[in-house]
C-alpha cells in the first residue's frame, strides 16, 4: 500500500511539473516591452504591466496599453491626448506602427533602444 501511494505521489508530482513547463512555453512574451525611439524628440516606453509613456520633447504622457492580435490600443491618462490604436509589427529591433482610430493614419518606424 505504501509503494502504491509513493508511486501515485511521484506520478502526480511529475505530471504537475510537465504541465507547468508546457504552460511556460505556451506564453508569448510581450515583444513591445522596452523603449522605442521614433526620432530625436519622441520615444514610446512599454512596461510589462501594460502601462507606458510617450516622451515628446520635455513632456511625458502616460498611458495604459492593450494588445489584441496585431492591434495596439493606447489609452492616455491625460484628456489632452487622444486615445488611439495602431496596427503594429516587430521585426527584430524595428517597430512599425500604422495609424488607425484616433490617428492621422500614417505609418511610423521606431527603433528599440
UniProtKB/TrEMBL annotation:
Residues 30-110 form the DUF5640 domain. Pfam families: DUF5640. It comes from the Bacteria. The lineage of its organism: Bacteria, Bacillati, Bacillota, Clostridia, Lachnospirales. This is DUF5640 domain-containing protein. It comes from Lachnospira intestinalis.
Amino acid at each position: 500500500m505504501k509503494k502504491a501511494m509513493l508511486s501515485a505521489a511521484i506520478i502526480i508530482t511529475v505530471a504537475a511539473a510537465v504541465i507547468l513547463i508546457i504552460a511556460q512555453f505556451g506564453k508569448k512574451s510581450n515583444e513591445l516591452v522596452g523603449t522605442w525611439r521614433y526620432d530625436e524628440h519622441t520615444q514610446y516606453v512599454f512596461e510589462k504591466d501594460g502601462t507606458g509613456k510617450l516622451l515628446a520633447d520635455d513632456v511625458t504622457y502616460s498611458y495604459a496599453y492593450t494588445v489584441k492580435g496585431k492591434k495596439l490600443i493606447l489609452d492616455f491618462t491625460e484628456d489632452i491626448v487622444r486615445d488611439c490604436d495602431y496596427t503594429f509589427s516587430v521585426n527584430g529591433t524595428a517597430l512599425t506602427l500604422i495609424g488607425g482610430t484616433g490617428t492621422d493614419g500614417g505609418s511610423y518606424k521606431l527603433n528599440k533602444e
